[in-house]
Design goal:
There is one protein chain. The chain contains six helices and 73 strands. By secondary structure, it is mainly β. The protein folds into five domains: 170 residues, Immunoglobulin-like (Sandwich); 247 residues, Kelch-type beta propeller (Neuraminidase, 6 Propeller); 150 residues, no CATH class; 159 residues, YVTN repeat-like/Quinoprotein amine dehydrogenase (Methylamine Dehydrogenase, Chain H), CATH 2.130.10.10; 46 residues, Type 1 dockerin domain (Orthogonal Bundle), CATH 1.10.1330. The strands form 18 sheets. Strands 63, 65, 67, 68, 70, 71, 72 and 73 form an eight-stranded mixed β-sheet that branches. A four-stranded antiparallel β-sheet has the order 3-60-59-58, with no helix packed on it. It has a four-stranded antiparallel β-sheet with strand order 5-6-7-8, with no helix packed on it. Helix 5 runs antiparallel to helix 6. The chain is elongated, with a radius of gyration of 36 Å. This is Cohesin domain-containing protein. InterPro entries: CBM2/CBM3_carb-bd_dom_sf (IPR008965), Cohesin_dom (IPR002102), Dockerin_dom_sf (IPR036439), EF_Hand_1_Ca_BS (IPR018247), Kelch-typ_b-propeller (IPR015915), Quino_amine_DH_bsu (IPR011044).
């Protein structure tokens, strides 16, 4: 190609030698190759599932029951379609598994006196709701019972009374319900504490339900039998004093169990303390079990429990990193066996064939389905591997690491994945729920929920390991947005339960120090960040942590001065039609240096200095009032296009024209997406969709294959005023590895004056262009430099012209002799002619009072019109009938006179 390219460069430099015969070959028609959606020279394939990156048996709760005379675990494996599973404890074999269509999670399980198992299912895909199910150990069948309270989003807790009635606690308005298995009916007891959204724990004793409340903790005693009906009262007045906090600071009453005549209540938050309520005497005992480092305790406090196992007036709880023996006479807590997780079910079971475990042992199930067997006398523990059928875990985040791999976390948490798109290899790692991720140096940083922790992975190591770096603090819980800013990392967060007011955190990896700036926008959280020239551009959601109601009406943008640690300004978006949108996100600095972002279905561009909205487009007008926490994810492709999950729809946008295409329109909801390179260096789209959250999916992106390197055309205004200067663009469409072009134009020199011809920025970056004019013949020649082929649709050059003569129908003509050449032209020997003239019509207008059409309104126009008063109207003088009344008369002369007078004033 050197010979041909040298010729092009010589032509570009020596414009005086431009000749019409420098190209030869017949024109070739452009035709896209292959299937898929073609947009701006790119072909987008159909979505394909390429991996199930995170598969495990993840459970949230379990209970021990008895079936066919054998002790069994009843539990539910969380998945896109959750499954209820039954495990024989002694043999550690799976007996049965039942899918629960429409359910993704189940935290609560309860066993009735007749052995029936009730499951509190939670649907999280689409419309979130709580659904009650039951399983019969007699019939070995599972049945959906329905939605106990329409509108409630989850069932968090279940218990049963001695007659087999089922009681549950819900989230959204903190209600208690009853299911009567004989009548098959539900009873709604209403909200327990006005303004509190959760009944997180529940227990039954002697005609009363005890409901554990959140987000501000409390315990409500509710009468549910004929003898106790109508009784409803908080019994939590003494709790703040026992916990050592104010009433407003009491955290979730998270777990609850009745042991004898005691109600044990674990309060969560930062306390992890267990309190005791004397059911017989109706009083709280003074004893508190909390964070302790005595006898090897880790000081983490009391963990979660679904059942508690008691024996000899002692109960066994998960506390301070151990299975802990709690004496219910002295309330002395003694750590027995190292155990760092919660008790998901607990009961005494004998294992005759397990050496070293005589008599009865306490059993519980771990979050991954393993069964833990505790010999409390010998202080030993034995783990049996999970017998549960695993399922794909929903992907909760996707981001490209510094090594080019895709890093993913899952929900429920516990396992993450690293997928290399160049080799299609997959690795798993232990990882909690990462709300945000960002690559920095050779490390991948993750913002972990709950607790607002920041972890990192050293991507240079062959085995990925996540290690904790720091905790944000300031009551921040969900680090949803993480971006780099020079040599630092900026993080936007959502606060914890019951809290309003997110924060901006700036972390310096070189020193390990971080600063937290909370409530930059009062009572709003931060979900969008971009950095440019010493300023952070942030955007917010009006929502705070769970258990809160928004106090502000509209999300805002803000500007933060990094050096002076101060907010410069905050403001709502001034875009027609958006109303009071709850969230603005997807902020990014574009190649043009402006700030881009998304709100509802709108893409906007903002000047970083003046903060003026320079342009916007309502791409999805059907989307309004969108958003809570999860932000949009924008990526600038190497092809100059913007890729973004705008309104949860994969959207590709040309930033120059705001033209767009939506990919995968059948998608229910794209929750996360990223752009990563394959082995050839081609960027591909990777995403997780709500229709199948366990699968990593890909949309292939390839260059459109056209026979020609592109088709030249003109684009400009269709009207211009006399003496006005306009810009007409020489554009390229169906671009494909263009190396050079020659555009031949015919422009009437009596009508137009050519002021200048300049190359577009995209062409100029790796190319050269020159032009010449000979009368009305204009030639523009452009060539690329080196091996830089050009595949961008859009402007190649801007032609500035001034209209100097009135014309109803002026024309700019791009002649059919115009030609283009591909980067492989030296091999093929083919150049490509336009073939037929491309005509751009333009009307050159003047003031209607300028009747002699010389470009100005003067007394000469009065004289011209006066000489034609009373003349019959024809094409030569029709424009003189200014008032369009069918006559050239004194009224028309008056209009011209008025115009002359105004101009002279």
């Amino acid at each position: 190609m050197r010979k041909l390219r040298s010729k092009w460069i010589m032509i570009a430099v020596l414009s005086c030698l431009i000749v019409s015969g420098m190209f030869s070959a017949a024109p070739a028609e452009a035709s896209p190759g292959g299937d898929g959606v073609t947009f701006k020279g790119r072909v987008f394939g159909d979505p394909e599932k390429i991996a199930t990156p995170i598969t495990k048996a993840g459970i949230s709760g379990a209970v021990v029951g008895e079936e066919d005379g054998k002790p069994v675990f009843y539990t539910s494996v969380n998945a896109e379609v959750a499954s209820f599973q039954i495990v024989d404890i002694r043999s550690n074999t799976l007996l049965r598994s039942f899918p629960m269509p429409g359910v993704q999670q189940a935290w609560a399980h309860a066993v009735a006196p007749d052995g029936t198992v009730y499951i509190g299912g939670i649907r999280t895909s689409g419309q979130t709701k709580g659904i009650l199910w039951k399983y019969s150990p007699a019939t070995k069948q599972i049945v959906e019972l329905g939605e106990p309270i329409p509108g409630e989003k989850s069932i968090w807790s279940l218990t049963v009374d001695d007659k087999g009635n089922v009681y549950g606690g819900t989230f959204q308005t903190g209600r208690v319900f009853k299911y009567d298995p004989v009548a098959g009916t539900f009873t709604d007891y209403g909200t327990m504490v006005p303004g509190q959204e959760y009944v997180r724990s529940i227990a039954y004793h002697d005609g009363y339900i005890y409901a554990g409340i959140g987000t501000v903790g409390d315990v409500v005693k509710l009468g549910v039998t004929e003898a106790t009906a109508g009784y409803k009262q908080s019994i939590g007045a003494e709790v703040p004093g026992l916990l050592g906090v104010s009433a407003a600071q009491v955290p979730f009453a998270y777990d609850m169990a009745v042991v004898g005549d005691l109600l044990l209540v674990k309060f969560q938050g930062d306390l992890y303390k267990l309190l005791f309520y004397d059911l017989k005497n109706g009083a709280w005992l003074p004893h508190v079990v909390g964070k302790d480092t005595e006898n090897g305790g880790t000081g983490v406090g009391v963990f979660n429990f679904a059942q508690l196992a008691a024996r000899d007036n002692k109960v066994y709880i998960p506390a301070n990193g151990h299975l802990t023996e709690l004496d219910l006479t002295t309330f002395q807590a003694t750590p027995l066996i190292r155990y760092g997780t919660s008790l998901r079910g607990a009961a005494w079971v004998s294992f005759d064939d397990l050496p070293g475990y005589p008599g009865q042992s306490l059993v519980s199930m771990k979050g991954n389905g393993e069964i833990a067997i505790f010999n409390v006398d010998a202080r030993t523990v034995y783990s049996m591997p999970s017998a549960l059928i695993g399922a794909p875990n929903p992907i909760h985040n996707i981001e490209v690491g510094p090594d080019g791999s895709l890093y993913m976390s899952a929900y429920p948490a516990g396992l993450g994945a690293v997928y290399d798109p160049r080799t299609a290899s997959l690795k798993n790692l232990i990882l909690e729920q990462a709300e945000g991720m960002v690559a920095y140096g050779t490390d991948m940083y993750m913002g972990i929920y709950p607790g607002g922790h920041v972890y990192k992975i050293d991507t240079t190591q062959s085995t990925p390991v996540a290690t904790r770096v720091f905790t944000i603090g300031e009551s921040q819980d969900r680090p949803y947005i993480m971006k780099t800013m020079g040599d630092k990392i900026m993080i936007g967060t959502i606060p914890g339960y019951g809290e309003l007011g997110g924060a901006l955190t700036i972390f310096d990896p070189s020193t390990g120090e971080h600063k937290v700036y909370r409530n930059i926008v009062q009572n709003q959280s931060i979900v969008g960040l971009a950095y440019k020239d010493g300023y952070i551009y942030g955007s917010t959601t009006i929502h705070g942590g769970l258990g809160t109601s928004a106090t502000e009406r509209s999300a805002k943008l803000f500007v933060w001065d990094v050096a002076n640690e101060r907010k410069v300004t905050e403001f709502a978006l001034d875009i027609p039609g958006i109303g009071q949108s709850p969230m603005i996100s997807g902020l990014t600095v574009g190649p043009d240096g402006n700030i881009w972002g998304g709100v509802d279905g709108i893409l906007f561009k903002m000047d970083p200095v003046t903060h003026e909205i320079l342009n916007y487009k309502n791409i999805y007008p059907d989307i309004t009032n969108y958003g809570m926490w999860r932000p949009y994810h924008p990526y600038w492709g190497k092809d100059g296009l913007l890729y973004i999950d705008l309104a949860d729809r994969i959207t590709v946008i040309d930033p120059r024209t705001l033209e767009f295409v939506r990919l995968f329109p059948e998608s229910l909801e794209v929750k996360f997406m990223a752009l990563a390179e394959d082995a050839s260096g081609q960027e591909q789209i990777y995403f997780a969709d709500a229709t199948d959250m366990g699968s990593l999916q890909r949309i292939s992106v390839t260059d459109a294959q056209y026979e020609r390197p592109g088709r030249l055309k003109l684009n400009g205004p269709d009207a211009v005023r006399l003496n006005e200067t306009i810009e007409v663009a020489l554009e390229l469409e169906q671009a494909n590895a263009l190396y050079g072009f020659k555009a031949e134009l015919a422009i009437d020199p009596a009508v137009w004056t050519i002021e200048s011809v300049t190359a577009s920025d995209d062409w100029q970056s790796n190319g050269y262009m020159t032009w010449s004019a000979d009368g009305g013949d204009v030639t523009i020649v452009g060539t690329r430099l080196g091996d830089n082929g050009y595949s961008l649709d859009g402007p190649l050059a801007k032609i500035r012209l001034t209209a100097k003569s009135y014309r109803d129908k002026a024309r700019l003509i791009l002649l059919g002799e115009s030609e283009t050449i591909r980067i492989d032209g030296d091999v093929t020997g083919v150049t490509h002619r336009l073939g037929s003239d491309f005509v751009w019509p333009v009307t050159i207008q003047t003031e209607k009072e300028d009747v002699n059409r010389d470009g100005v309104v003067t007394t000469d126009d009065l004289i011209s019109l006066a000489g034609r008063i009373g003349a019959a109207i024809d094409d030569s003088n029709r424009h003189m009938d200014l008032n369009r009344d069918g006559e050239i008369d004194i009224a028309d002369l008056g209009l011209v006179g008025s115009a002359v007078f105004e101009l002279r004033r």
